[in-house]
Input
Amino acid sequence: MSGVVGNWRVELVERYRDLFHPPAGAPMSAQGSPECGSGWRDLLDRMCVRIRAAVRPDGGAFRFTQIKSKYGTLRVYWDGTLSPDAAALVEEAIALAEARSACSCEICGEEGRLYEGAWLTTRCTTHAEGRSPVAVRPGFENIYIVRYVVGGKSRITCRRYDRENDAFVDVDPASLDIEEE
Ligand SMILES: [Zn+2]
Output
């Protein structure tokens, strides 16, 4: 039944009303009601648990404004009035969910990767359905690189998303042969 498929979104919004703030009686009308496949339900649930744990003790306001699939991976937007520390915890929870979406089939949630096609999708081999995988430079699987500037100098941090432990692991940029000036 197609109705059953749609219910996971309602359940998620209802379970985390404090984060979605749905209009009374209309959970699907919540701004952040997820616009993605049910395979990502679990990673969204994990993200909401982490965000709630950051928001509750902080006491500031939080609201999802958009949760969607873009270029094959999750995008999460929010607004609110959190302390810098709580906001950083929220951003980390979102980074973990977005990284997990990049290696989890949007259809079934099993381990997957990015595929080309009419549009980019993250799929397991079963749901790839003849699409071609997007090539990843060897050693750069699930690597996330952040470039920033401190005191006028360019710096980078490298992390690898560990799907089994649902956590980031620091990676030495030198081991990836990345230029750091
Ligand atoms: Zn799948």
Residues 105, 107-108, 110, 123-124, 126-127 surround zinc ion (CB under 6 Å).
